[in-house]
Amino acid sequence: METTKQEFINQMEKLVLDTVDDFADSLEAHNSPICTCPQCRLDVTCYVLNNIPPQYIISSRGMAHLQADYQLKIQKTADVIQMTKQGFEIVSRVKRPGFVHKGEAAGEIIEEKPCFNFPLITGQLLNGQNFAPLNEKQEVSLLIDGWPAEMCNSNWPNPYILVPTLPGNFMFLPKPFFTAQPGETRTFSLTLQLKAEGYHNLSHNFTLDLVSDSRVLSALKTNKKYTVQELYAFKTDFVEENL
């Protein structure tokens, strides 16, 4: 008897992502010299996932509650936290070249001008048919007021290419918008677009209400974060069959 084809989800991925972020935030709060830039966080996440046993479940609508219950039982386990600590120590000693890390100012200009500093924009793309994170190398683009958003520096690509080690997850940090004075308010219209082979084009609109600061904030020190709601992408053949 042939087994029905199913999608499998490694539940440890979200646990590790959350643990790495929490651990990095703690390092920053204690002014640790260890680099906690977004790229180092990603490298640590990959290190941990490659060194702990996966925990798989079958992806389906009926597994949603089971997944939530399981997450509560295994959150912040000692093994994951210890591996995260080890990962930051290793990554901090051997930093990925071509990126600006803590204590390095190359390529980043901090201007003393009033501007709107954007938050770190994060989110996750899921397969709309089975709720599994997209693990294919698809491109996600960010637009601001209808135009491709320029990022704060070359560390942040736009479009962002999804990577299998962080299924469905994307991050953007737009370049600040300069203005006349601090304390101004402005609503920015943003659009996330997925144009991927085999998937129906996805476009998600949202707005950010920002207040201008007195200066540009360093990309390494930003503590603002905006998480987009989970986005669901549908394969083209599925959309055509259900029209």
Topology, please?
Elements lengths: L6 E4 L1 H18 L8 H12 L6 E4 L4 H11 L3 H16 L21 E2 L3 E8 L11 E6 L2 E2 L11 E2 L7 E4 L4 E2 L6 E10 L7 E10 L13 E3 L3 E3 L2 H6 L2
Parallel strand pairs: 4-12, 4-13
Antiparallel strand pairs: 1-2, 3-9, 4-8, 5-6, 5-7, 5-10, 10-11
Overview of the molecule:
Helix content is 26%, strand content 25%. The protein has 243 residues and is of the alpha+beta class. The protein folds into two domains: 7-93, no CATH class; 115-241, Immunoglobulin-like. Strands 5, 6, 7, 10 and 11 form a five-stranded antiparallel beta sheet that branches. Strands 4, 8, 12 and 13 form a four-stranded mixed beta sheet that branches. The chain is flat, with a radius of gyration of 19 Å. The two termini are 33 Å apart. Residues 61-67 have low confidence and may be disordered.
Quick structural gist:
By secondary structure, this protein is α+β, with helices and mostly antiparallel strands.
Tally of structural domains: 2
CATH-scheme architecture of the largest domain? Sandwich
Number of helices: 5
- Identify the overall geometry: flat
CATH class of the largest domain, named Mainly Beta
Average of pLDDT: 77
- Give helix and strand order, one letter per element, not per position: EHHEHHEEEEEEEEEEEH
Beta strands, count = 13
Integer-rounded radius of gyration: 19 Å
Alpha-carbon distance between the termini? 33 Å
Q: CATH topology of the largest domain, what is it called?
A: Immunoglobulin-like
Helix content range of the residues, please? 25-40%
Work out the strand percent: 15-25%
Please identify the structural class as seen in this structure: alpha+beta
> Runs with pLDDT <50, length 5+?
61-67
- Main beta sheet strand tally, sense and closure: 5 strands, antiparallel
